[in-house]
Amino acid sequence: MGEITHVSPLAPAGFPDLPEIEGVEFAAVEAGVKYQNRKDVTLMRLVEGSSLAGVFTKSATRSAAVLDCQEKIGAPSSEGAAIIVNSGNANAFTGRNGMESVAAVTNAVGECLGLPASRVFSSSTGVIGEALPHDRIISKVSEACEALSTSGIRDAAEGIRTTDTFAKGAGSTIEIDGKPVKIAGIAKGSGMIAPDMATMLVYIFTDAQVEQPLLQKVLSELTDQTFNNITVDSDTSTSDTLLLGATGTSGVEITEDNSVFRDALRDVMLDLAHQVVKDGEGATKFVEVAVTGAASDEDARVHALAIANSPLVKTAVAGEDPNWGRVVMAIGKSGAAADRDLLSIRFGDILVAENGWVSPTYSEEAGASYMKAQELAINVDLGLGDGASTVWTCDLTHCYITINADYRS
Amino acid sequence: MGEITHVSPLAPAGFPDLPEIEGVEFAAVEAGVKYQNRKDVTLMRLVEGSSLAGVFTKSATRSAAVLDCQEKIGAPSSEGAAIIVNSGNANAFTGRNGMESVAAVTNAVGECLGLPASRVFSSSTGVIGEALPHDRIISKVSEACEALSTSGIRDAAEGIRTTDTFAKGAGSTIEIDGKPVKIAGIAKGSGMIAPDMATMLVYIFTDAQVEQPLLQKVLSELTDQTFNNITVDSDTSTSDTLLLGATGTSGVEITEDNSVFRDALRDVMLDLAHQVVKDGEGATKFVEVAVTGAASDEDARVHALAIANSPLVKTAVAGEDPNWGRVVMAIGKSGAAADRDLLSIRFGDILVAENGWVSPTYSEEAGASYMKAQELAINVDLGLGDGASTVWTCDLTHCYITINADYRS
Fold first, then answer.
1. Within 10 A of B37 (CB to CB), how many other CB atoms are there?
2. Complex ipTM, two decimals?
3. Closest approach of chain A CAs to the CA of B339, in angstroms?
4. What mean pLDDT is predicted for residues A367-380?
5. CA of B397: which chain A residue's CA is closest?
């Protein structure tokens, strides 16, 4: 009880085989920003002609790197791009020095790769409020540039980790117009995870050709269905960044209504989002909360998040206690429309409660048996309308306390 | 780590000596509603001519007893009143049976005390979703009626406990127009505590004479400064009830602008509210979060609650880690107006951060030393306006997980 397990029990069997994306290279090096003896600076390069889109934390105290990315992301360019990420230090709430560090790092990368600093994006993740030792990063930039390789994506996934217990990757190869189109992405994140976005860094690449405005539109829409519907602890970070790069090297151009591309991209994003939840600090259970029959989609999301963020629901899940009364409580407190006598609650397929009370067909034994599974579904129908929303979360365990009462993040 | 301590380390030295209120009697009996071998049914009687005011949970799934109280509370009456409380079962989300149980219990009390059921109020606290075994309560009503005594308030405070680790009472005797006026109250609550109101039952009595509409107005206003500004775990219960009875037996009539009475009542309410936080499940630290300089009072409250409810702030407090970066994070995520470069953060009197970064005068040693205290103050000034709000919370510990991963509430 309370010990930090080496790898989340919800981790996938291993890092997936990801398709190599022509025109995207990766490298990770040891700079000793905070962690010693591990790769903590990751460099990614996109070929000339690539489009880049991004979504970012909405925190009012967002980090210098996020502010810098937001300033650069929309500008049209065909010069290629680079992304540099350090772990161990968030460079957030570091005053004017924060922006100076970002400028120093992005300038160094630009010089090394022959790019203007306006095409170098950066992310920092780790402790808030400590000056970024950017000299340590800059001294390793040329080593990173030399190590760039199209096969380095797993190194990159390792390099961006902080408290993550496993490296996260997801990919897909689809066929469009008879040609293969590849998507591959990596993510980090395990605590301070909540809409909007969480301490989460995500980098996804495709060899499709997509104009920047369309790439941004698709990314924003799909984020609302994926990364914005996960929550570990309701806390939102100052550093959340999701960048999506499209190289065009497949020769396949994507237009507005290409559902094959959109669906494949959504699947990769959802896979990564679920992996972040499965690495939720201390998580032992993965929980899908699906709310239907709400007065509106937004109401459904409010209810789903109230359930998913409730410490009492999350501790009940940790204790394998089919405590549906706490689900009722969470619905009641959410503030969105609900009628006690119209709502129904299911754990998986088991009808637990309806007509304002426990279902006559429900048995505590069936509920208790269901709760022993590692992946759980809490399904609520409000009986009011057509609004629906699904969010994903994990349980709240002793290990979360152990990690966060000690780790300085 | 994780064991349930017998009594909260934040508990007061003992139950206070409370003034006896003429015209208010108390009794507690063992009915075995759920708990065995402890008093679990509490009866309180108010003399003829008493006024009664109440505030209740806003949960959309509130309990049958709350719905019944809300229906009865505003009706003018000079017939006296009774309050009956059971612990162990919340009679919430129990369908139509729930209202039938309330009617059965309040009718039985009314018959025993010669009161119409419309003047018998009830509360139930404990497990949600299980039928209230009201026959067990009814079979003990006459025993409770016979045991009524003006000196029984401590028994009542014991009888309403569920997971509370100590009985909670507060009182005051003031002088108005040369005559003594007494106030005495009891409370229960330790988990599922959040605005609005939490799993909290509070009963306060005074021998002042106050017309019902004024009593209700004062109670509602003071609740917003006291019980609605505490949070243990952000979860709101289906059963929260605060009743305030004024017997008039002191012969002192209170009018609208009596600040002596209002201040004394506020002090009693705040004392009880703080005791609820100090009995927060697993609490080892009591934390005051005071936000000033916000764009509005409401913005200040949003920021204060974002800090007080943040699992990452609460675990840092548990770990005695002066992790002010998490306070920055919580301000950033709250959604209310903030400017990174204008806000300042103090732990007690220690200036921690200002001008968008750690203060040059701050030392980690001073912060770490401060965090070892049992009572802490996190003070944030936003530098934007005159809005202010103060809320109170506790830390998030292993013991909270232990209690809530096992206890069926």
1. 7
2. 0.78
3. 7
4. 96
5. A401
